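Reading group handout, session on sequence-to-structure problems. Before we discuss, look at one worked example. The prompt was deliberately terse, the way you'd type it at a terminal:

> structure Nucleotidyltransferase substrate binding domain-containing protein

The input record follows.
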Amino acid sequence: MQDKFNFEQPPFNTLTPDERQDLLDQTDIAYFGRGETILEPGQLIDSLHIILKGVVEERHKDRNEVLAQYTTDDLFDIRGQFDGECRHDYVALEETLCFVLPTQAFLNLMTENSDFAAWFQHDLKGRQQTAEPRKNLSEFILTRIDNSNIQPAMVIDGQTSIFQATQLLKTHHLESLIVAHDGSFGMLTGTDLLYGAVLNELPPGEPVHVLASFNLVSVQKGDFLFNALMLMVQKKIERVAVKEGEQLAGILEMTQLLSQFSTHSHVLGLRILRADNIDELAEAAATLGMLVENLHNNGVRLPFIMKLLASLNSQLMRKAFEFAFAPELHDRLALMVLGSEGRSEQVLKTDQDNALILDNDLSAAEVLPQAEQFSRYLERLGYPPCPGRVMVNNPDWVRPLDDWQQCLDRWVNRNTPESHMQLAIVADPHFIAGRESLVRQFQKHLLAAVKGRELLLSEFAGQALRFHTPLTFFGDIKQSDKGLDIKRGGIFPVVQGVRALALEQSVTETNTLERIRRLTDLHIFEPEQADNLSAALILFWQLRLEQQLASGGDGMNQRLNPATLPRHQRDLLRHALHVVKKFKQKLEVHFQIRGL
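And the output record:
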């Protein structure tokens, strides 16, 4: 029977062949009849049970409360392996077969195999890392910039002629040179030399400093390659200087970076940059879903995917903004996105959530025709209209700054479910295009308006408790024919609860993971709780993305089918939902919600 032991499930998948054989040699099989008590409170623990077949229920004897149910491949009593004695009753609900591993053998494996030990010693974050080891591409994502992936920088004097610089590029097979001139460094590329000689008809003897770009973009040696990629995409460039402190250490070229990174996200960034009309922009936007799937299939961690997609989505919207709004308006208004896009937590495209803040001397009527055009452009790019019409083609979401500030004050003072919904929408503003200072003033006024409003914040936080955590009375995942709504059951309570705490503490970050980090710095969260909450949220996003990709890339689908998940993922999901349940209890105490 030992040959039926499942070594494919964590943490046993971390064992070496010799460790697996040693486990089998020391493992027995025990049979328990229906209703039989396997363990009871106070009993000394001398073995770990791994269920081969059947169902076992964990009960709190004094409170007559069912704590959990365990089935095939589940383990119990893990706590007892370290405490030495059992705290609860474990009862077989049906005929049950268990592998029985002596505690001493279990502890020996813990000592010999750190990955195996991590599964039991770590919290949800540690278990998730053990269950889902990084793949090759995500190893690249975490690779740092060093001498192995940069090329030496050839520095030339600014008085070097165009002819001499061209010869250097050809002789040394380089794409760029660093130009030193008047105490500054600039970048000179082969394209710069071509345009200077042919288009500007500069003589071969002209000094190269007139062609170099002295607004040098740089990264630090030791930073992540991924951050260099992000910088190139955001700045719309194909190379950066690499510095070690203040000293120039070399150049990192896009071509070098892409020799290790094959998702072609740079191609999409360049296509967005070079689009001259909405048709070309739509062609670029159509490849976003393919990029997400490629990144996901190659094992890139979801927070990195979100960061990259947030940058690319911002570029798409910024370009659409430039197409839709007359240039003379760009410094008189600000486009901001809200909701998941404002939090940089959108992966696959969902509906539009955006608004315009206008200069006080600009009226909504003057910009609404162009705002209507912008909304049509976004729809063309794959962002469907918002069912609640939170869009710039709706006059309610196009206001001068003074009007917006009065509107925020009204919502705060009303303190109704409807006003809470409005505040939740605008609590995650992210600037896209126009004049950024308008968005900063908007957010500053919002944080000041809710400061010290304890009743408002309590009722606002109470929205996180609207939906039941999808756990059964026994602590297992609640099953439904329609599937598990992971947004209502897991994502929304975390996002809304953290948002309420962020508003209370005047935290300006809008991304939920960044808010959790900031709230931990402010001692609102203990580090362990913060890690577990972040890991739970990432798991919810990950599972939702996998289901959405499986259903054809439908970014609106929020349903999971737990029955289709591997056991270790169901185990992680159950653990994560318990993290959410504990977080809700924290919100109840912190905001005194039960007393309302």
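Points for discussion. First: DSSP finds 24 helices and 20 strands in the chain. Second: The CA atoms of residues 142 and 380 lie 35 Å apart.
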